[in-house]
């Protein structure tokens, strides 16, 4: 996750305040130093670090915590508010029809991000289209077209044309049916005058509602110059940070956001079109500080459940709450879990489970769990339909057969059966609840 190390060190310095009711200057100084150290090592611009740490220091010392607040909570609240203000208080992109222009250097991930964003808007019920105007980089057209096909979104480009401004103009006409148009532009290795002139012309041709700067998370201090120049030429309304799967830094993006007075719009964390997350400042900072992010979590749960259901029309999560909870249901649940992404990311979103707690687990703890999930899946693949429907028929004899068939061992088969009965009991408790309670519970999770 972006700024992962920053989160870890912030949490540990906050934890040092545990049990204290009053803050003294030494405490504040120590925390502020820690914050500075971690921001700088995440590549955040020096003057920005100073600005941020100064205001945290002043507020921590001057503001009177409300009665009953511990020193830790007082500082946590201030750090939270200052960090949220830094990454942008509101989401940069409302969910509405609009034209978005993408800017950035070559290789920053613009083309990939255009398709990702289009995919994201399509999951929200809007009809997106990508317009590819990059005539500079060979292969940009094919790459964009392929990714848009994979994302199942409209695409416009012209491999034979060489005037990007003309392509942009025609693209706007050709995609008149779309709600959201995402205009991809060419990049260069460095900011050259002709690149700036070209993007300014495209900007005039498409008259975007928003322009986003696409930045590689690994970019450090260079972010400042880029942000400044693009801001001066076309005006930047938000930043998409890409390649977060490759680095835990991402501080350059914070610098860019600050420089352009904009906010982070999206995070990209992989090469496929689904590897995108809309950035929600408060949720993100909560996660960073170990406060959890229930909104993200419930979105993921919802999506995973929906996907699992789409694949198997006969299966409805609601059924689980009506009748019996079979091993088949459990398998579906495990599939859904897998779809939510790596377990540690999911855990990070649960308040109290996030950050601090994960740090106490050995690094491989999550792998073990996922390893076990895979074994469970193999075991279930070796079971008969009847056994899946009614696991009670599985005795000693069948356990042996299933263990052999799945290439696991009897102990693991028994663990699976135990886990199933545990989940069954939990589900039965839910069944005692009235209609709609589940929805209400999910809503509550969503905040
Ligand atoms: P452009 O020149 O700005 O259009 O950049 P591209 O979209 O072609 O991306 C450059 C490279 O980065 C490609 O190999 C992409 O697959 C890769 N890439 C883009 N976004 C991500 C990301 O979030 N994670 C990873 N791992 N790779 C990415």
TrEMBL record:
Name listed for the protein in its UniProt record: Signal recognition particle 54 kDa protein
Reactions catalysed according to its record: GTP + H2O = GDP + phosphate + H(+)
Protein function: Involved in targeting and insertion of nascent membrane proteins into the cytoplasmic membrane. Binds to the hydrophobic signal sequence of the ribosome-nascent chain (RNC) as it emerges from the ribosomes. The SRP-RNC complex is then targeted to the cytoplasmic membrane where it interacts with the SRP receptor FtsY.
Any one Gene Ontology cellular component term annotated for this protein: signal recognition particle
Any matching Pfam family: SRP54
GO biological-process terms attached to the record: protein targeting to membrane
Domain AAA+ ATPase: 96-280
Broad EC category: hydrolase
Main location as per UniProt: cytoplasm
Domain SRP54-type proteins GTP-binding as annotated: residue spans: 97-290
Places the protein is found: Cytoplasm
Domain (Signal recognition particle SRP54 helical bundle) ranges: 2-87
Binding locations of GTP: 104-111, 184-188, 242-245
Gene it is expressed from: srp54
Species lineage: Archaea, Methanobacteriati, Methanobacteriota, Stenosarchaea group, Halobacteria
């Amino acid at each position: 996750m972006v700024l992962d190390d920053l989160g870890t060190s912030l949490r540990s310095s906050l934890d040092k305040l545990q049990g204290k009711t009053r803050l003294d200057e030494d405490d504040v100084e120590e925390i502020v130093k820690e914050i500075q150290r971690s921001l700088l090592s995440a590549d955040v611009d020096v003057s920005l670090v100073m600005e941020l740490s100064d205001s945290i220091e002043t507020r921590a010392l001057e503001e009177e915590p409300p009665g009953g607040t511990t020193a830790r909570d007082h500082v946590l609240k201030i750090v939270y508010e200052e960090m949220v203000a830094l990454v942008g208080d509101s989401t940069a992109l409302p969910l509405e029809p609009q034209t978005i222009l993408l800017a950035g250097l070559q290789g920053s991930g613009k083309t990939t991000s255009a398709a990702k964003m289009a995919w994201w808007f399509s999951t929200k019920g809007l009809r997106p289209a990508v317009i590819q105007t990059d005539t500079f980089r060979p292969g940009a057209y094919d790459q964009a077209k392929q990714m848009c096909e994979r994302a199942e979104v409209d695409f416009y480009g012209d491999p034979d044309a060489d005037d990007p401004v003309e392509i942009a103009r025609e693209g706007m006409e050709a995609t008149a049916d779309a709600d959201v148009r995402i205009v991809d532009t060419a990049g260069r290795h460095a900011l050259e005058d002709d690149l700036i002139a070209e993007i300014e012309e495209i900007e005039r041709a498409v008259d975007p509602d928003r322009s986003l700067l696409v930045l590689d998370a690994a970019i450090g201090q260079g972010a400042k110059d880029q942000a400044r120049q693009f801001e001066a030429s076309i005006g930047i309304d938000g930043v998409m940070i890409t390649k977060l799967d490759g680095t835990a830094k991402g501080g350059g993006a914070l610098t860019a956001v600050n420089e352009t007075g904009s906010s982070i719009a999206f995070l990209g964390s992989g090469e496929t079109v689904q590897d995108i997350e809309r950035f929600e400042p408060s949720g993100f900072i909560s996660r960073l500080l170990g406060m959890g992010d229930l909104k993200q979590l419930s979105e993921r749960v919802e999506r995973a459940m929906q996907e699992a259901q789409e694949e198997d029309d006969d299966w409805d999560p609601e059924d689980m709450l009506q009748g019996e909870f079979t091993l088949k249901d459990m398998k579906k649940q495990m599939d859904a879990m897998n779809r939510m992404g790596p377990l540690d990311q999911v855990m990070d979103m649960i308040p109290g489970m996030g950050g601090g707690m994960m740090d106490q687990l050995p690094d491989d703890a999550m792998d073990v769990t996922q390893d076990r999930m895979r074994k469970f899946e193999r075991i279930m693949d070796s079971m008969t339909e009847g056994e899946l429907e009614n696991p009670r028929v599985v005795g000693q004899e069948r356990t042996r057969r299933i263990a052999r068939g799945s290439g696991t061992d009897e102990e693991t088969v028994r663990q699976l059966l135990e886990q199933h009965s545990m989940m069954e009991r939990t589900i039965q408790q839910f069944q005692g609840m009235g209609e709609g309670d589940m929805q209400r519970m999910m809503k509550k999770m969503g905040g």
